[in-house]
Write a structure and sequence with these properties.
The protein is α+β, with helices and mostly antiparallel strands. The chain contains 2 helices and 3 strands, in the order E-E-E-H-H. The chain has a 3-stranded antiparallel beta sheet with strand order 1-2-3, with no helix packed on it.
């Protein structure tokens, strides 16, 4: 989606530093690159469900969807949320 709006993307890279007008990344080969940027979106493809166990301690019915369940596409998370909402 960001690419459709003209944004440059750099997958398989680590965000090392953000300056006033650039982002410094380390690409998949370990090469540091400074990229001119006025806006930066950093997304990690890692599932994060750290709070699920805590919530389960106080709630009987907990449903995990989206990236908390498994890293996937936005459309899948929306569909999962819709299906869960309809089932309630």
């Amino acid at each position: 989606m960001l690419q459709q709006e003209g944004a440059n993307t750099h997958g398989h890279s680590e965000l090392v530093e953000i300056t006033e007008d650039s982002a410094i990344i380390r690409d998949e080969y370990g090469v540091r690159k400074e990229l001119d940027a006025d806006t930066i979106v950093s997304a990690n493809l890692v599932s994060n469900n750290d709070m699920v166990d805590e919530i389960k301690e106080v709630c009987d019915d907990v449903q995990v969807i989206g990236d908390a369940q498994a890293v996937s596409r936005l459309q899948k998370a929306v569909v999962d949320g819709y299906k869960l909402g309809v089932s309630i």
